[in-house]
Amino acid sequence: MLKAVIDIGTNSTRLCIARVERAEGAVSVSQVRKYLTTTRLGQGSADGTLKREPMERTANAVAGFAAAAAEAGAQELYVYATAAVREAENRDAFRRLLLQNGVKLQLLSGEQEALIAFTGAANAEDTAVIDIGGGSTEVMVKHDGQVRAMSRKLGAVRLQERFGGSDGIDCRMLQRVKEAIAPELECYESIRPFDARTLVGVSGTATTLGAVKLGMREYSDAVQGTVLTLGQIRQLAEQLMQPLADRMLIPGVPQDRADIIPFGTIILESFMSRWGFDSLTVSDRDSLEGFLMLSEDPSFGALPCRCGKN
């Protein structure tokens, strides 16, 4: 069956169209197309409310993606949102805005967000997956057949809006950022990240760092499986702390992510240093594929939304 899923994040809105098949109890997802647009839904939401302009541009992007999914022949469409909407006092206003375009929104908990990222990226024993988003960071660990997950309000957009950094990040600002995120990093101890032997990184921070390492002028799924050592990530972090105008010239850094990528990199480097990981494997497969895989599991509660031609 051809399915589509739209992920509404704090920083970007994404669409995945894929063929989902079940055979002998196993679910496989074969990607057809992926799309991404930066909508910054969480822009200016530090006071706990989503602002009208970010909501409207995100709703317009979702409507466009829903039409693209229908045009591609997707038989089922799913639309979910994560931290920015989950924490907003006026999330129902955003729901109503989407409904005007025939889109019914499913709001994921932090634990569900972690689960879909792990399922899409790894689902392997003794593996940890880190998903650094704009508004939250999810970490998942599988050990002894059990998956432990935690979501914290630690995101690249949150830090960028708090600390700025467009003129560069000097040693003093870096120290302040690290001091701010240290208590959040300690919270992950309860899910025992040290039980994992392998760390996999998904979403924008990890894939951007992979693209920078490869010197990509245009992003592609060739980043899949790229390995970054902790030393390389530290070197990239230093490179990304230069002024915004210079960052934007680095091959592999998207123009619309250049302002937040240093902060995602600081989160990643700090997490790896704190919990003893000396390398990271980049995965282009993430929560989109994971959601589609779990959509076949009735206990997950995926809610299909039909719109457009569907």
Explain the layout of strands and helices.
Layout: E1 2-8, E2 12-23, E3 26-38, H1 52-72, E4 76-81, H2 83-86, H3 91-99, E5 106-107, H4 110-121, E6 127-132, E7 137-143, E8 146-152, H5 156-163, H6 171-187, E9 198-202, H7 203-214, E10 227-229, H8 230-240, H9 244-247, H10 261-275, E11 279-282, H11 287-294
Parallel strand pairs: 1-4, 4-5, 6-9, 9-11
Antiparallel strand pairs: 1-2, 2-3, 6-7, 7-8, 10-11
Strand order of the largest sheet: 8-7-6-9-11-10
> How many helices?
11
- The number of distinct β-strands equals 11
Strand count, sense and closure of the main sheet? 6 strands, mixed
N/C terminus separation:
13 Å
Give the integer mean of the pLDDT values: 92
Strand proportion: 15-25%
Derived structural class: alpha/beta
> Secondary-structure element sequence?
EEEHEHHEHEEEHHEHEHHHEH
What is Rg?
A: 18 Å
**Helical content (DSSP H or I, runs of 4+):** 25-40%
Which of globular, elongated, flat, extended, rod-shaped describes the shape? globular
Low-pLDDT stretches are none
